[in-house]
CP2 domain-containing protein
Amino acid sequence: MEEIAHNAVQFYWNPTEQPVKINVAVQCLSTDFSNQKGVKGLPLHLQIDTFDEAHSKNVPFHRGYCQIKVFCDKVRVRFQIRHNAQTRPSDDTRQGRRRKKSDGEYHELCERSEFYHMSNLTKPAVLFVPPEDYERFPPVESFYCIDGAGLQTLVKEETSENDSASPSPKRTKAYPTDRVMIYVRKSEDSIFTPLHVIPPSVDGLINAIQLKYNIDVSRITGLYKQCKKGITVQIDNDMIRHYCNEDSFIIQINSSDDGSSYTVSLMELDRVDSVSPSL
C-alpha cells in the first residue's frame, strides 16, 4: 500500500487469488469540521477507483463511492429518536406543519454503507498535496493534483439518481501558499515596507530585498533572523515557508568593510511593537 497524497492511497491486488479488504478508521466526528454550532456535520466522501492495467492505466473500469457520518453515542440516540418521530405516521395537521423533504433526500439508517456506482469514469480523482510535500509524493498521471496554493473549490460530482443531495456547507476561504508577504522596516523608520516573497524560499526573499533596497543579489552573503529569545539563526527555505503572512521584522543591512558584500538580518518583533504610530 502506497500513500500518494494526503487524502489517497493506492494498492495492487489480484482478484483471482483472494478478495481484497480495506479497513478505514474515522478518528473524528462529522461535526468537527462544521463552522457553525448546530450544523449536522460534513459527511466523509469515500471513493474507490479500480483500474485494470491491462485495459487502461488512466481510466478506471469501476468507480464507487459512499458518504459516512460519525456521531457520538448521545447524538446518535437523539438522531435516532428524531428520525423515528419524522417517519412515524401523523395526522394531516401535523403533516401540513412539518417541513417537507424531497424524495430521496435522506437515506434510511443502516449498519452498512453501500458503495454506489458513478457513471462518470473519465474525470480524474482529486488529490491534495501541499507545496511542502511535493518531493514526498510522486506525481500520479491518473489523478488531478491540487496543491495548497490552489484556490479551486472541490465541485460536487454529478452522480447517478441514487446520489443523496444535501445543502452545500459553508467552507472557510482558502488562501494561496505559494507566496508570503512580510513587513520590514529599518530601525530609524516608522513605516513598514511589504516584501512579497515569491516563491517562499531564500531566493524569493533575496529577490524581494533586491527590489525594495536596490542591492545586488550576488553581493548578499548572509541572511539571518534574530528571534525574540535573542538567538540568531541562519534563514533557510523551511523557515520562510512556515512564516505567517504579515509577520513584522526590523531589517538590518550591514556591508563589509570594503563594501563588496552585505549581510541581512531580520529582527523579530512582538505584535505590539510592530504597530506603526498613527499619522
